[in-house]
Write a structure and sequence with these properties.
The complex is a heterodimer of chains A (71) and B (187). Chain A is built from 3 helices and no strands. With 71 residues, chain A is mainly alpha-helical. Chain A has one domain. With 187 residues, chain B is mainly alpha-helical. The chains are: A mainly alpha (71), B mainly alpha (187). Chain A binds chain B through residues 1-2, 4, 7, 10-11, 14-15, 17-18, 21-22, 25, 28-29, 31-32, 36-39, 42-43, 45-46, 49-50, 53-54, 57-58, 60, 62-63, 66, 69-71, and chain B through 11-12, 14-15, 18-19, 22, 45, 53, 57, 60-61, 64-65, 67-68, 70-72, 75, 78-80, 156-157, 167, 170-171, 173-174, 177-178, 180-181, 184-187.
């Protein structure tokens, strides 16, 4: 995790996640404008966004990969 | 074998810390899930047509950007780059403050269109109020993080305090990911 190449990779993951979140936010905004009923689609986009944050920003996998990540 | 030895042989302190934080986040999320269910129970999929969509979209964007800067701060401190860490924490704090200002503007409009005495007003002010309170506590923690950072705390080998605060900030972001469509977009 402390190697420079790891840093680049993690930064890239951060940017890709952020862009995906931004795109999904715009998508859900347009869903609310043009699709009726919008509720099922909005729930799906919100769940995907939540999963992206939990997986890539909060690193939930650390909980079950303790040997690799723990110091 | 003592209890401490048993624990250190199977779990590192960091792992225990992380697990504890996730349990805390899980318990906190129960409050917000309850609020979401309450919203649907009371209002169905209706929302107030007067709600300010522009402010909603802007403050959502601000919170997403703040999650990126918080993430970058964690990556930088993991590499021992203190200056970049501090800069990103400061950016996160500023974005969080602007988010709260946006909520304040939205509230001032909401008082005119759907005051707390109305059904949608009750739901809106409760949900955004509870979330804003958590943003505020997140900002206080980030401020403490920044202050301790200026005093030389945290390094690439010891940054659990930073990691925990940043994870909490992401949690606040996740809550908004669900509250934003529930309050602004459903129809």
């Amino acid at each position: 995790m402390n190697k420079p190449s790891d840093k680049k990779a993690r930064m890239r993951i951060g940017w890709v996640t952020f862009i995906a979140l931004g795109v999904l936010t715009i998508v859900e905004f347009f869903i609310s404008l043009y699709i009726r009923p919008s509720t099922p689609y909005l729930i799906v986009t919100a769940v995907i966004k939540g999963w992206l944050i939990i997986s890539y920003f909060m690193h939930i996998a650390q909980v079950w990969r303790r040997d690799k990540d723990s110091k | 074998m003592t209890t401490n030895t048993l624990h250190s042989s199977r779990f590192s302190q960091l792992y225990i810390n992380r697990l504890g934080l996730w349990l805390f986040i899980l318990s906190e999320s129960v409050i917000f899930v309850a609020l979401l269910f309450t919203r649907f129970y009371l209002l169905g999929v209706e929302r107030a047509p007067e709600i300010n969509q522009t402010i909603g979209l802007i403050i959502t964007g601000l919170l997403l950007v703040s999650s990126l800067t918080a993430y970058r701060a964690e990556v930088h401190i993991a590499q021992g780059n203190r200056k970049a860490f501090m800069n990103n924490i400061l950016a996160t704090i500023l974005l969080g403050i602007v988010f709260l200002i946006g909520v304040g503007i939205e509230w001032s409009e909401a008082f005119d269109h759907f005051p707390p005495g109305t059904l949608f007003g009750t739901v809106f002010f409760t949900m955004t109020g509870m979330h804003a309170f958590h943003v505020l506590t997140g900002l206080l923690l980030l401020g403490l993080l920044y202050l301790r950072g200026t005093q030389g705390a945290y390094s690439k080998n010891d940054y659990w305090g930073a990691e925990a605060t940043i994870k909490y900030w992401h949690f606040v972001d996740i809550v908004w990911v669900f509250f934003y469509p529930a309050l602004y977009l459903l129809s």
